[in-house]
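Researcher: I'd like a structural prediction for the single chain below. Treat it as a standalone chain; there are no partners to consider.
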Amino acid sequence: GLSQIMIAIDPSKFNNSELTDEIVNQIVEDVKASQPDAEGKEVLYPGERALRTREENLREGIPVLDEVWEKLK
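Model: Treating it as a single chain, here is the predicted structure.
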């Protein structure tokens, strides 16, 4: 069986945004300092790959297969 639970916490109820940002940055730094599971790889935090893809697509455009593009035209 599979069980999951999600808890949403509003950090503004516990501290200010500056402290929350500092805590998040410390967590990200800790994650990024972890040893990757294979040499030459890097440790990514959740959503980092999607963020990189979005930035690349905004900068270079969204990649589309040539055959799909031809059908769209």
